[in-house]
Amino acid sequence: MTDNSAKILKSINPVRIILPVAIGIAVTAYLMYREYEPGSLNLLTFSIQTAFWLFVSILLMATRDFGYMLRLRILSEKSLSWKKVFNIIMLWEFTSAITPSAVGGTSVAVFFINKEGIRLGKSTAIVLLTSFLDELYFILSFPALIIIAGGLTLFSISPEATALTWYKNPFILFALLGYSIKLIYILALSYGLFVNPRGLKLLLLWIFKLSFIRKWRPQANESGSELIQASNEFKHWPIKKWIRAFMATAVSWTARYWLVNTIIIAFFGLRILDPEGHFLVFGKQLVIWIMMLVSPTPGGSGFAEYAFHGFLGYLIPAGTGIAMAFIWRLISYYSYLIIGVFILPKWIKKHITKQ
After folding, report:
1. Where do the domains of the chain lie?
2. Bridge partners, 100 (sequence order)
3. Any keyword NADP (predicted)?
């Protein structure tokens, strides 16, 4: 096993789930203690309707994963089987769940795809292109939601908060920071993938001559080389294949953003939100995911619960916000930790230990 492989395996050690779980539970418990109102949890009754809509919530997450799997099949030109893309997506989500949202990194995803039989250059190209498609969805949908829902309404934490000046709303500032990072990233990646990959590599190497980031210059050189490989792989793709890959991306993220809507319906019924309210909840989820980009905790743990409680809590009965946030994270986050713990040891035994 190479030093790089050993380093990657250390970074995805299942033991690392302890930290995000501990942070998430601690923040949930603290918010529950601070915000609890006697009798409020009695509103969360379980019925056939609850079971049905929670099942729909799980189906949405399955649809989200299917969209990711379909996209990997398209990008790999069907050289990856459905079983292989399932393992890759689950391990990819597990890795994202135990590393800070702000850190990210493509090396682990490239590692997973490469070990499933795709040559290294193509694996790198696939991961960079999935990142490009994800960011493109965010970049296009975020301003559209602001125009449709209204910026102040989308970022409000209460009906009265819409009167606040935009720079006094911390959620707007977090979202703008996250969106700016994504916009800069996708502009640089687009330039490197489709216009001048060698030029972008030279620019990266020039930037990383600065003393305070010079120690990361080797990684910048490696990333630039990967970008050149990715450009050679995909710049001659037909438009039809690009559309299919982007549609799979859109289906995946849209399914994820409808999740909270179905959880609210599960416990409070269809009438709690009007059509505009459901669209507002959908938009707020996208904003939460953008804000999580700047979270220093693994998988946004703790920050996500806090943002949900403060950002969506006023749309549902008082005192139930943190409980709903926990259910949301249980389905959309903790489930990947559990699945990853079961899949990872078998995957390592098959692809690393035997080799």
Report:
1. 3-36+43-353
2. 298
3. no
Is residue 345 within a helix (H) or strand (E), and if so which, with residue range?
Answer: helix 335-348
Per-residue pLDDT of 167-185, as tens digits, reads: 566 777 777 887 888 888 8
Which candidate, 243, 208, 238, 242, places its Cα nearest to that of 222?
A: 208
Give the span between the Cα atoms of 197 and 335, in whole angstroms.
Answer: 38
Residues 6+ apart with CB under 8 A from 235: 193, 194
Q: Is 100 helix (H, G, I), strand (E, B) or coil?
A: strand
Encoded amino acid at 110, one letter:
V
Lowest mean pLDDT of 68-82, 177-191, 287-301, name the range: 287-301
3-state secondary structure 207-240: HCCCHHHHHHHHHHHHHHHHHHHHHHHHCCCCHH
Token pair in block for residue 13? 């050690």
CA-nearest of 300, 263, 285 to 60 is: 263
At residue 298, what are phi and psi to the nearest 5 degrees?
-60, 125
**Phi then psi dihedrals of residue 72, to 5 deg:** -65, -40
For the stretch 71-98, pLDDT in tens is: 999 998 889 999 999 999 999 888 888 8
Q: Please say whether the beta carbons of 322 and 309 come within 8 A.
A: yes
Token digits of residue 55 = 């099942």
Backbone angles phi, psi at 12, to 5 degrees: -110, 25
In sequence order, what are the residues at sequence separation of 6 or more whose Cβ sits closer than 8 angstroms to the Cβ of residue 211? none
Q: Which helix (H) or strand (E) holds 75?
A: helix 48-75
Token pair recorded at residue 98:
């135990």
Rounded CA-CA distance 226/207 in Å is 17
